[in-house]
Design brief:
Layout: H1 9-24, E1 31-36, H2 43-61, E2 73-77, H3 85-89, H4 94-99, H5 109-120, E3 137-143, E4 148-156, E5 162-166, H6 176-183, E6 187-192, H7 195-210, H8 214-221, H9 224-233, E7 241-244
Parallel strand pairs: 1-5, 1-6, 2-5, 6-7
Antiparallel strand pairs: 3-4
Helix pairs in contact: 1-2, 5-6, 7-8
């Protein structure tokens, strides 16, 4: 296992082993893992690497054919739970809401919690050996072309043994609803990354996505993004595993 240009290889290896080991001790045959980190930390990339490596390890250590399927480990992004733009425009503080989109209060945490609970709870049926079965759950993605969620765009397969959810605030417990979201997870991973590194990555990302100048992109990266990141940074203490970012051109 290489570092993949994002995080130390040894940390990745230990995290993957911990996740698979925890799954093997889980009687309900499904494990929910969250990956959180400040914007630009690399959490999306890390979540996908964890899924890929956990999938490979499961095939080696599990004798259950269900654990060998391609969808035995899946990744679910939190982006689809952004509030719609029309909802932000209807807020009394609409200008702040639009400017601060991406802050924890601009997500539909209650909807996220409902979907996570649906993913977590088995159906009323079981297989021939009495093991629990799960239903497919459809969750939203985020359509960057229109700037709003796209409902029921991602299927979390009922066959998934390990579901890795990635997003900024999944370790946040600052409100009752976000605390309930956090309780849906069996394990939490935090992707630690220096704020300055995140800002540089975000600047490049904003320039590419929006066609804006470096100066304009840096205003956003060191403004609202940084404010959100500072809050996310305080949630690292709630993680079971902390990974440390390495410099890359992400």
């Amino acid at each position: 296992m290489t570092n993949r240009g994002v995080v130390n290889a040894e940390e990745l290896r230990e995290a993957v082993c911990a996740i698979v080991s925890r799954y093997q001790k889980t009687p309900q045959r499904r494990l929910l893992v969250c990956v959180a980190g400040r914007p630009g930390s690399g959490k999306t990339t890390v979540a996908n690497i964890l899924a890929e490596e956990a999938r490979e390890l499961l095939r080696k250590v599990s004798s259950d054919p269900r654990d060998h399927a391609e969808n035995a480990v899946v990744v679910m992004p939190m982006d689809g739970y952004h509030l719609y733009r029309k909802t932000l425009h209807a807020m009394p503080n609409r200008e702040e809401a639009i400017a601060r989109r991406g802050a924890e209060w601009t997500f539909d945490a209650r909807k996220l919690c409902r979907d996570l609970q649906a993913i977590r709870l088995p159906s009323e049926t079981a297989d021939k050996k009495g093991a629990p079965l799960y239903d497919d759950v459809f969750v939203p993605s985020f359509d960057h072309s229109v700037g709003d969620p796209k409902e029921r765009d991602i299927c979390v397969s009922g066959s998934a043994a390990i579901v890795i959810v990635e997003g900024n605030y999944l370790l946040y417990r600052g409100t009752p609803t976000w605390a309930e979201v956090n309780r849906c997870f069996d394990m939490g991973v935090f992707q630690a990354c220096p704020a300055a590194t995140c800002a540089r990555r975000l600047c490049r990302r904003h320039m590419a996505a929006w066609g804006i100048s470096e100066a304009e992109a840096m205003v956003r990266a060191t403004g609202s993004d940084a404010m959100n990141g500072d809050l996310v940074e305080t949630t690292g203490k709630n993680a079971d595993i902390v990974l440390h970012s390495i410099e890359s051109s992400m």
